[in-house]
């Protein structure tokens, strides 16, 4: 019987090398944009490289009529739900009385719209602008079921949990650009939180809102917005500043949860270091706020007293 040829264990270099195929989430397209065209995909499999071409100008800040309608609907429903939350829902009637409950609800809605509206609207616009920057179609669409659920929950229980809608993005994106789009929303909330501190210190300091020491308190523990036939606008301003600070932190943290359609899942899929960094930037102040280490009202009042 013949012996085994020792050269059988030697594997020669593949005489038919395969072309390297770029991963969709790792390289630039031939146009230098974030998306790949059909020609790009064909060239990948053929092992060819295309010559980059200019992408031209794109209208980033552009809203269709249907998108404006959906943003308006979601904002209105969100504001109504926040108003119900401010009066503790139906249970607030027994503690406040029907007249005070209605007056407080009507006055709380503009406060919430002014304070929390930007946190929601600019969060979604942040997604939209970054998506369009990378050549995608991106428009906000409201979720009617989510809006109804949020309004009913806040009306009956005085607690708000709402999925008002999201920015719909269409385009073949690389993973990191999808991560950029996702993290843009929470980073917008972080920016609003940082900007909001000096902005509200200035507003509350100039108006002297903290100088009013005789603000009546409601039985549910919140500030009264009306006393007799007069509106206490100082109390409304203070609450607007407090809600601006807290809402941007809470909304940013909630969206960074790495679950389902939330932004955190997309950011974590792109870059775990970025995900944990942004997540803890929101988690630390929110957790310490709920544990009582600090509060937005104490922060604003302390800074106002020092500066003014």
Search tags:
308 residues, 4 strands, two-stranded antiparallel ribbon, mainly alpha
- Placed side by side, the strands forming the largest sheet appear as 1-2
* Shape annotation: globular
Mean pLDDT: 82
Proportion of strand residues: 5-15%
Helix-strand makeup class: mainly alpha
Order of helices and strands: HHHHEHEHEEHHHH
Distance between the termini: 102 Å
- Radius of gyration (Å): 27 Å
Task: Write up this protein.
This protein is mainly α. Among the domains are: 19-57, no CATH class; 97-136 and 174-307, no CATH class. 59% of the residues lie in helices and 5% in strands. The protein has ten helices and four strands. The strands form two sheets. A two-stranded antiparallel ribbon has the order 1-2. Strand 3 and strand 4 (230-231) form a beta hairpin. Helix 6 (175-207) packs across helix 8 (263-270). The longest helix has 36 residues, at 98-133.
Question: Could you outline the blueprint of secondary structure elements for this entry?
Answer:
Blueprint lengths: L37 H9 L18 H22 L4 H6 L1 H36 L3 E6 L1 H14 L7 E6 L4 H33 L18 E2 L2 E2 L1 H23 L7 H8 L1 H19 L5 H12 L1
Antiparallel strand pairs: 1-2, 3-4
Summarize the structure.
This protein starts with 37 loop residues before the first helix and ends with a helix.
